[in-house]
Amino acid sequence: MLNNSKKNISILSIALGSGGAEKVISLLLKVLVKDYNVHLVLLYKEIHFPIPEEVNVTFLSNKAPNRPFYLKFFETIKFIFAYNRFIKRNNISVSIAFLALPNLINGIVAARNKNLKTIISERGFPSDNVTSKLSLYISKIFYPLFYNRCDKLFSNSYHINKDLKDNFGIKIPMEVIYNPIEIPPNTIISASLNTSVDKLKVITAGTLNKRKNQIMVIKAIKESLLAYEFSILGGGDLNDFLSKAITDNQLENSVFLKGKVKNVNEYLLESQCFVLSSFTEGFPNALIEAMAIGLPSISTNCLSGPLELLNENEDVTIKNGEFFIAKYGLLINNDDHVGLSKALDYFHKNPEEREKYSKLSLQRSKAYQLDSIYKKFNQFIQN
User: How is the chain split into domains, by residue range?
Assistant: First the structure.
């Protein structure tokens, strides 16, 4: 039931699948309902994360999101008119969109509703999100045309905002609001990592695709002379490719493809080090969630996210084949399996460093707790 003393706001997204942006939406819904009448509007009917019962959910299509491009084009036109009617019918005061297509729809709707506050959110590094020269060309036309009609934008990285300003001509006010996390009920006891081990238990998590670059992990383990038990969580198109690489390198007793798992935290709790091997990220949820468990972490210094998380966004220079000891973890260059191998060996040989960076991970993750992030987000909505 709607509360007449609260503003009506809508959250517009493609779906509520298993991605990072969708998880952020799910977490924010938990706290938004305290201050607003919240409507969740999804273009397609797909739900992976829980939705509070106080949230009013509307699907603009009952289809799944994996539709052919030509169908999506015509559906988008329908979505624009349907969402505009929804805004008027439900007396929405603030419309908040996540991801490129909903952002564009929000920009179009903004021009038709002068009293509507429109906020958009970019969740990935824009210049790396485009899949071809044509899509980049189209983005450089439509982003400034429709994004700039909105009132303001927030992303989860300073580097994303800079890319939008420098390469896409975005001129509206922009702010950085990092992804929220819920501190897990169980965390690693840091002192337990300060023991010598024959095999270091290492873990990574993410969709098996080129962008996440898990093949780098396999090459790093092959490079090292030390023993590892490396678990790769996630499913994806490169499963067979990675499985073959493990066999070809005779690493069946060292690297394990675990597939999609629901109990990710249980695997993290059993590990001693986390690795992020991505070429690019928006904001690496997997990394901050591993840190919240208390895992010492190694990450590529990709744009965007890891530098902000592990070194408070202070620039670093890393020699090829080496690693950098940052404030809250270790950083390596993109696609540098030799540097990763040396970073892994550093944690393997120095258990006291594992304990130190476990404590630092727990400390760092507190800044990203849901209540802290929501306070900033709510101020951003209201100001």
Answer: 7-176, 190-367
Q: Which strand ranges, in their side-by-side order, compose the sheet holding 227-233? A: 255-259, 227-233, 199-205, 273-276, 297-300, 330-332, 323-325
Residue 46 sits at the vertex; the CA angle it makes with 42 and 52, to the nearest 5 degrees, is: 70
- Beta-carbon count within 10 A of 17 CB: 18
The SS3 call for residue 329 is: coil
Question: Which stretch of 84-98, 121-135, 140-154, 291-305 has the lowest confidence by average pLDDT?
Answer: 121-135
Residue 97 contacts residue 82 (beta carbons within 8 Å):
no
pLDDT of residue 292: 97
Which CATH number is correct for 7-176, 3.90.1300.10, 3.10.290.10, 3.40.430.10, 3.40.50.2000? Answer: 3.40.50.2000
| Cα gap 211→242, rounded to integer Å | 14
Rg of the chain over all Cα atoms, to the nearest angstrom: 22
pTM: 0.88
Confidence band (pLDDT; 50, 70, 90) for 209?
very high
**Do 7-176 and 190-367 have matching folds?**
yes
Locate tokens 């550093």: which residue? 346
Give pLDDT tens digits for 274-328: 999 999 998 899 999 999 999 999 999 998 899 999 999 999 999 999 999 999 9
Name the architecture of domain 190-367. Answer: 3-Layer(aba) Sandwich (3.40)
